[in-house]
Each structure stands twice: as C-alpha cells, then as structure tokens.
Amino acid sequence: MKRTIPTALIAVSATALALSGCSSSADSAETDGVSIVASTNVYGDIAAAIAGDAADVTSIIDSSVQDPHSYEASAQDRLAVSKADIVIQNGGGYDGFIDSLLGDADPIVLNASEISGLMPEAEGHEHEHEGEHDEDGAHGHEGHNHIEGFNEHVWYSLDAMNHVAEHLAEELSELDPDNASTFEDNYDEFSAELESAHESLHELGESATGASVLITEPVPLYLLEDAGLVNETPAEFSEAVEEGTDVPAAVIQEMLELVQSGDIAMLAYNEQTSGPITEEVKDAAESAGVPVVSFSETLPDGEGYVSWMTANIEALSEVFTA
C-alpha cells in the first residue's frame, strides 16, 4: 500500500523522503499530518488518492494473500488505530476486526457500507464505532458476520466508492483546512477517473444487458449488475460458499446443471477464496465452454483502485464484445 508523508516532513531529510513508499500497520511511523487507517488496501488506495501528501495512510489488510474474513488483528494494528484521525472500514459485517481495534479510540469512522447508499435504511444505523454487531440476522464464520440480504462488497460499486471519496475529502478538509483545496482537487480528479470507468461500464451494458451469469460468491455482483448482467446463481450456493458452510448436494447439482445448460454467458469466480466445490464449478464451466472471469476481494499487488476496476470491466468486455 502506498504510503504518503505530510508536506512538512518532506524538507526535513532524505530519510523522510524514503518513508513515502509502502505502509502497513506493522511499519507505520508517526507524522505531524492527518493519520488515516483503512481496513483494506482498497480503501487505503482511495484514501491516498484523496489525501495526497497531506496524510499518512495505513492499510491493515495490505496484501492479496490476506483474507479479510479470517484476519486476526495485531497489537500493531491496535496501536495504529489508536493514533488515527480517520478510520475507513467497509462495514456491513465484512471487516469486523476493525470494531475490536477501536476500543476506547475516538477517530472519525467512515463506514463505506453506510455511506454507499446501498445498505437497507433499517440496517444503516449499525455504527461500527460502537464495536457492536446484531447477532440476529447476521451470520458467518471467522468474524465475517454479514447482514442478511445485504451484499457487503460495496467497493465493487463505482458510485459507492465515489460517495466514500467525497465524504473523505470533506472530513479531511475539516481536519486540515489549509489543504482543503488540494483535497477537493484530488477528489475531482478521482471522481473523473471513476466516471470514465463508468462510461466503459455503460458501453459494456449495451451488449451485455440481460445476459445470464453465475457467481461463486457475490463479491463482484454490484459491478455485474451495473453492467446489466443477470445473476442466475442459486442463493443457497453463493451464500454457503461465502460463509464457509457445506453446500447441499442438490444445490451443487443445480449449479452444475446451470453451467451445462447453454444459457449461461459467464462464470464470475472469486480467486481468493477458492475451494473444492468452486473449483468443480469452474472446471465444469471450462468444459462447457463458459468463459470464466476471475475477481479478487482485495487490491491486486501493484494496482490502484481505478485501474483495478477498469481491468475488471475490460475482462468483462472481452466476454461480451468479442
């Protein structure tokens, strides 16, 4: 995750300049500027894009090999959160480890699920700041307690991330008024890049709208739906895979029959949480000539958020505009 250093430190020494590389919760250093901690590198990248050199950004999940579902926070993570001015979490039960880290800390907490406009209003009052989860209607494993009926993977919605970036720019401007114009300019640039990606998504929709697809998990579902694609996956299948529970044999058979039906245009495959059942479905799709497009939950190494989403859209375009 790219780390940024406050402008006031840049002139201090060459050593300070060297600190502007990558940052994780394990090696974050104190600065005089705004400190932002993000639950994953997705939000860390967005934060770095908006804050520029005026903040220090730390991502707790900062590698594609780390699984947010089962992540166990460290003492170093707790220290980083305790010193943060702003904490960005996905919310919706996705990154519950943030709740345990907040403790007595009192940063500004940006909950992406609540900001997104995608969460049912009745659930929007869940304030991760309090470190509480409603056990009724929430279930999962390894701390992954998602809200029933809500797809918490909101970072696959370009509109949702635009809202997050806008809120972040506003909070940064209040904390650091001297750099308010920079935050606004950075947000405008980020928003324009998102709009360009959105235009590509709309172009894709002209040829993809109405096409039936299957998913192994609902990770990329917002992006697929925004392209006009129709998810035909049995709900029991994707829910069981996401929650790490056994998929009923009848549901597996239903999924395999759909793959082989000739009516499915694509399989969306979560490459970060594959297992024997999803591998079986993937193999069946490849055997049936159904294109398989892989998606990840966290930012791939070396990618930025916009370039990552653009690459995902391009991968979909290869299927539907070939």
Describe this structure in words.
The structure is a single chain. The protein is of the alpha/beta class and 322 residues long. The chain folds into two domains: 7-190, Rossmann fold (3-Layer(aba) Sandwich); 206-320, 3-Layer(aba) Sandwich (Rossmann fold), CATH 3.40.50.1980. It has helices at residues 7-10, 14-18, 41-51, 75-82, 97-102, 112-116, 158-175, 180-208, 221-226, 235-243, 249-259, 276-287, 305-320; strands spanning 34-40, 55-61, 86-89, 108-111, 138-141, 144-147, 212-215, 230-231, 266-270, 292-295. The strands form three sheets. The chain has a four-stranded parallel beta sheet, sandwiched between helices. Helix 12 (276-287) links the parallel strand 9 (266-270) and strand 10. Helix 11 (249-259) packs parallel to helix 12 (276-287). The longest helix is centred in the middle third of the chain and has 29 residues, at 180-208. The two termini are 34 Å apart.
Please outline what is shown here:
This protein is 43% helix and 14% strand. The chain has 322 residues and is α/β, with parallel strands linked by helices.
- Walk across the major sheet and give the strand order: 2-1-3-4
Termini distance?
34 Å
- The CATH class label of the largest domain is Alpha Beta
Could you tell me the radius of gyration in angstroms? 20 Å
* Quaternary structure: single chain
State the fourth-level CATH superfamily of the largest domain: Nitrogenase molybdenum iron protein domain
Strand elements, count: 10
Hey, roughly how much beta strand do the residues contain?
5-15%
CATH topology of the largest domain, what is it called? Rossmann fold
The CATH architecture term of the largest domain is: 3-Layer(aba) Sandwich
Q: Name the poorly predicted regions.
A: 1-22, 25-29, 124-143
The helix count comes to: 13
The best one-word shape is globular
Mean pLDDT reading: 86
Taken in chain order, the helices and strands follow as HHEHEHEHEHEEHHEHEHHEHEH
Helix percentage: 40-55%
Main sheet attributes: strand count, strand direction, barrel closure: 4 strands, parallel
Query: How many separate domains make up the residues?
Result: 2
- The secondary-structure class comes to alpha/beta
Main location: other
GO cellular component, one term: cell envelope
Protein name: Zinc/manganese transport system substrate-binding protein
Signal peptide: 1-18
